[in-house]
Amino acid sequence: MKIQHDAIVCRNGEVIFAALGDEGVTLNVDTGKYHYFSDVGTRIWELLETPASAATLSAVLVEEFEVDADTCRAAVIAFVGKLADRGLVHVTP
Amino acid sequence: MADGKGLVWLASYPKSGNTWFRMILANLAAGPDRAVTINEAATHSEFAASRGIFEAATLLESTLLFDDDIDALRPSIFQDMARDAARPVWVKVHDAFTHLPDGRPMLGTSARAAIYLIRDPRDVAVSLAHFNGSSIDQAITRLNATGSSLSVDRFGAPSQLRQRLLDWSGHANSWLDQTLVPVLTIRYEDLKTEAVAGIARALAFVGQDAALANVERAVTNAAFERLQHQEAEAGFVERGLGVAPFFRAGRAGAWREILSAEQRARIESAHAPMMDRLGYARG
Amino acid sequence: MSRHDGALGCAAPSASASQPDPRTYSYGISGLSVESEIELLGAIPTAPADAPDLIVRQGAVPDALPAPSASGPAWQRSGGDFLLRVPRVGRFMISDGRSITVDIEAPATTRDASAFVLGSSVGILLHQRGALALHGACVAKDGRAIVLCGASGRGKSTTAAALCKRGYALVADDISVIGSNENDLPIVRPDGRQLKLWRRSLDGLALGDEAGDVVRPGFEKYFVSPPGAAIEPPLLSAIYVLDSHPAVSRVSIEHVGPADAMRVLEVQSYRPRLRRELNAPQTIVAQSAAVLRHAKVFTFERPLGFDRLDESLDALELHWRTL
Predict the structure, then answer these.
(1) pLDDT tens readout for residues A3-52
(2) Looking at domain A8-88, which of 1.20.1530, 3.40.50, 1.10.10, 3.30.1450 is its CATH number?
(3) What CATH number labels B6-278?
(4) CA dihedral over B138, B144, B150, B153, signed as positive or negative
(5) Residue B38 is inside which H or E element, if any?
(6) Chain A partners (3+ C-beta pairs within 8 A)
(7) C12 CA: distance to closest CA in chain B (Å)
(8) Domain boundaries, chain B
(9) What is the ipTM metric for this complex?
(10) Angle (CA) B128 B134 B138, round 5°
(11) Are residues C293 and C155 in the same domain?
């Protein structure tokens, strides 16, 4: 799914997250599927404890990881799109 | 009805085209964008004699139960599978359609339909010999013995549950003459000459919609040469213990070049009525 | 043998530790102290505990539960009660993670029932107690263990037996419970039982002389006493998922990534559906993640045949040593 940078992203409540060091895994209870999250993905998941837009997420990540703003935003949009495809987050609109 | 929900038996005596049929079904289910490998396809459909299915459903260790006690529990397993099927669930089965001592059919009564695949017993004998790594005479003995079963190994842990086969004719009779599950018979030889038509007829019979173009593509992706090639590259999980590959020859009528006159006579004299019924000319 | 001579009395366990009932047997199984009215074949007798975690008794078990919340072909569940019906053996009631009641159907005997107490019933009980119980054998050396999982008949016990011949200690034959120690590191709890091997494996491993009693009358599966069974729960270093079929020509060991490893731990549990029935998804995920923080998961594919076993085990040992 291609999402807009200002769309609001929130976690699907039926997803369980577990940390494995800096990385993590999620279980989507509805589908029964597990997904691996890298350290960046895990940080994004943590930040999604409160619903946020891709723009907001990028802004935080740019500070924490050594990456330029445009690359970061594109990567976040792509990542959140994948999360949406897997049913791990809801995106509005 | 056209969504085909429910349990469908894909029944056959061993070495009669069951695996090839399932390869086609797996390719059909995968959709237009990909061809499925033989090892992926092997897991696409369920298997009636799977220990895993039995143990998951009953929570009991199947290797410490007597075969007859296992059989007594199998009808409930299949009833539950049929009830819970949210889509067409094809189940490969080599068991003959037998009844338990209390009269219940061992395979239950809840399947929506059965496709019975049958092949010339003379070709089956040749194929069996290669698969098991036995002589043709031994294979014919098994074909002719009413007490034949698959997977009976008391000294090891066979990977499948015991499957009662009866003899080749008895197996066919048990499926064709039962009236509990609607059954369509398809000859392996007819499938070889007109696979698309045969598969389409089977799908229509069990109430599963499929566009002809999709069936054509699935049949092409599961062409014998392709299956052979994949096995040569990566092996095939369903291979038997003989040295021959699983996808060995796949021809109809090869028995003429292989069986002696005596071997042919052993088969024909034991199975004349069923061979006549199905159009397998003798002599 | 844990029989105590001298005391007369009924079958109910005695409250006083100084007057033990003559007809109870004591064991330590997967971290639980067990007191049983019937002899559990293949379980290694221990000294009795003051307050056993699990009591196994003979008694009446109904044919059905009044209002089961879930059921299958041979079982029903209602709250903390779990009823198991084993054809021509008897009925088993597993309750609240604390007791197993066995109602034997003649002509079956306690020897038939024993196999289903130690297998299915204890497995169900462990799930009632929220344990992480894998369906696999476990061996250890120098306090570090590997668990060998895989489908029935894929060679878990045979591989474990062959490793024991090479000097590893047996920790578990069939059900490997993963707990954690005071440092939150995963450990494996010994199942307190002997190895079980089919006749073919006994012969293939030249262990025929070690064969003891049959696991169940009428079946060619035997208890085998392994040398040096582990007592202290060792640390879990890895889980190997065994697979083998006629088309495998050489050994191959592959690392399993985190998401797939979570799935492996689910699938390789003892009776996964039951674990899900009795435990919340949050618990299951948390338990599996706790294991994967410290232990790795691999697939271990090897060619069939006892003649190829040594080379497979050489590869496994080398792989484990270099973890």
Answers:
(1) 888 899 999 999 999 999 999 999 999 999 999 999 999 999 999 999 99
(2) 1.10.10
(3) 3.40.50.300
(4) negative
(5) helix B38-42
(6) C
(7) 28
(8) 6-278
(9) 0.91
(10) 80
(11) yes
